[in-house]
Amino acid sequence: MLPEAKVVNFQEGEGAFHPGQSSQSSDAGxxxxxxxxxxxxxxxxxxxxxxxxxxxxxxxxxxxMDEEDEDGVDNEVDSDESGGSDTSDDNEEADPIPSSWxxxxxxxxxxxxxxxxxxxxxxxxxxxxxxxADKRHLQEAITQWAMNTQRVFRTTISSQKFLTVVCSxxxxxxxxxxxxxxxxxxxxxxxxxxxxxxxxxxxxDHRNLTSTLIARLxxxxxxxxxxxxxxxxxxxxHLQYKYVIEYGKAWRAKQxxxxxxxxxxxxxxxxxxxxxxxxxDRNPGTHVDIQxxxxxxxxxxxxxxxxxxxFSICIEAFMHCRPVMCVDGTFxxxxxxxxxxxAIGVDGNNRYMxxxxxxxxxxxxxxxxxxxEADPQSMEPLQTRTPKKNWMIHPQWExxxxxxxxxxxxxxxxxxxHISRLNYDAALITCLVDRWRPETHTFHFRWGEMxxxxxxxxxxxxxxxxxxxxxxxxxxxxxxxxxxxxxxxxRADVGPMTFEAHGPRQAWLHEFQIEQFGFPDVPMTAVQITxxxxxxxxxxxxxxxxxxxxxxxxxARYIPIAQEIAEATEAExxxxxxxxxxxxxxxxxxxxxGCQLTSHGSGIVGCPLLLQLWSWARFPIGRPEIRDGSWPxxxxxxxxxxxxxxxxxxxxxxxxxxxxxxLRNCYPAFTEQFDLLLESDVTWEPYSEDHRDEAYPGGIxxxxxxxxxxxxxxxxxxxxxxxxxxxxxxxxxxxxxxxxIEPPPPTVPLPPRVHAYNRKGANKTAAGWLQLLAPYxxxxxNAPAVSWATMEAFDLQEFEHYLRAYMPRTRLRLSxxxxxxxxxxxxxxxxxxxxxxxxxxxxxxxxxxELQDDAAQYARSLSSGPLLGRYEHHASFAQRLPRHRQPPVxxxxxxxxxxxxxxxxxxxxxRGQ
Length: 913
Fold this sequence. Notes:
This protein has 913 residues and is of the alpha+beta class. It is built from 28 helices and 21 strands. Among the domains are: 1-201, no CATH class; 265-321, no CATH class; 388-404 and 471-576, no CATH class. Strands 3-2-5-9-8-7-6 form a 7-stranded antiparallel beta sheet, sandwiched between helices. This is Aminotransferase-like plant mobile domain-containing protein.
């Protein structure tokens, strides 16, 4: 907001000054411009009294111009700004821009219209008679005006008393002239001619918007947040001024702002020597050693090489320090080359480990969390490459899916007539990815570390863990012709297979859904059932279990597996695979990659369904309510207890409801809510027996608990060529076990080069990849025998010690949220149980009695009061109506966004999804 010059409004027909009328002919009144009549035009009017007042105004303006002319006779033009030219090359910005133009003018402009003293504010206007505190503020106002009018100007006169700028278009008469009156310090605009040039196109960048000006406009933001990136400055300029500046200009603006605040590198190197000498003089016993060298080309310049200093009190105290075991990393090579790395074994308390950072600086500088911390508006949610429609399951597929261990998972994504498809919440999933740390393979929250584990995969998805790991996948030679031949003639109205190099197109596979054959009204042949199952397995593997960034095609590497399962006639014909470990490995790899993606349109790969169900099971953020209650014992019952619900079935197979004020798919709100969530809001053990008996009275699938021996294994998990490491020792509270203050490292750490395996530029065959991954494939066969052996129960006191050591070593908040201590006063509407409500039915009798007593007391109070008339009754109801429209239950949160309370099954009341 800039000051606005107050313009005198004359009556129609009055001979008055109009801004922008300088040096032009008058209106149709007949009077022409006379010499000395600067910036005025005459007009006719019959009222002589009003004409006299107009003459007085013109006389005052004429005196101002005469004073300017007299004052400028002997005035010399500044040598550093003469001609208005600037020879510095600032991205072709200097045409010309004096170096001292960049200051805030929000309170600089003053206006004196000879009638009253007025300080008025408007948006970047220039008017004759407007006054400015000094020349710099006038220059700033002209620049702001030029940017808003999409015009570029150049300076023709710039001296101690005069300033004149004209339009860069030589054919345009636009001109702004200002001067400093005699015996005054303010500057006055005495002449203003508007633009007559026509804009040929909108300017993407403005030459007058220099890096120096940008540095002053965003000085506070850059100085307060020195980690602010150059691209963030580009976005801020575009957001506020609608100009797209180049990267180099934004970089120079940041450097200029930092140099204005902290000085240049030369100043810093020069000042450190004087500072150390002063410290040595004022602290007797302090040792200072400064080494420098001389450049032969500049013998009179001494360049600082290195310094060493030690305060006397530290020298004396060091003699009394306890000995410690250290690893001096000064001469380390590789990724830590040149860094001083010291690892302390045990500190003076003989208990707590040294607070080494959990974050790798090379990873952290690319991490989404660091970008969010620097600029919360710079990130957008990652996209989920998930299917838009679920597939129906044919009854004759069930045996083959059961033999393969995929039937419980297939039920989670089965198309149902009365249930809508699960909508993936990309914002919620992205908030989890933002907190994923590849260094530890855990989420870093304020309440500690958490992570999806093999237990979550078994309980939520019902996928098997025992079996062969899904190692390197490879498409067969000539898969296009063989697959096209298999599907030829299955549907007469479907043409030849459409495909790309990556695999068959998803749209072509959709033509073989069972409803396309007329199921259930039209019976299907054995060939149609087999081929439709093969197409379904391609969709199940490529679009739900192992999603990738190919939106229109499905990888041809899944064809051999899909064909094997679809054509099996007995269970022995299908290889038993560890689907659960593969899904977790793919999800871990997707998060390790996704947490460093910052570009527009980036996606999260792996299994988004696992992340969303895991979040709903543990956090109240973005979680719906399931109103249908528990799972009926007679629904989906299997004599083998395999085709039965999992802990994720209620979320996917029942109607989901959200409160009318509950946020969904809101990335900024979810980011803040995770920062403000309390430890007591987290459901640490969602798979307890009480929870299972309440939600699934008929029991759950045996696949959920069959492979429990793998849950705590130290073995590496594998999918394709990707090898991932689990960190159960860092998330022991999720299992209800004791969390050590310093979690032990893996027995055999995964080498970084193995974790970085990818197919980009790798021309290895499946045999070559098998040779590289052989140790990890063999290790999975012995996975149950190699596990984290700890059966000690969870200890809250020791967990607090763990948090004390964990919190200073990582990033706990990603948003610039309010202080959680500053909360709004809670009301009776803001209360709800902050713990699991399982088992509360045992206290129902006591609660019912208390409610009856309260209701009776309120009834007696109402009956004893005076009766209201009809008018009073309506007025009272109108006052209570807004309160009744509020939700009956909502979560108390210091955030302005309301989160949902943890329900019996998850969520609050509201509309259906």
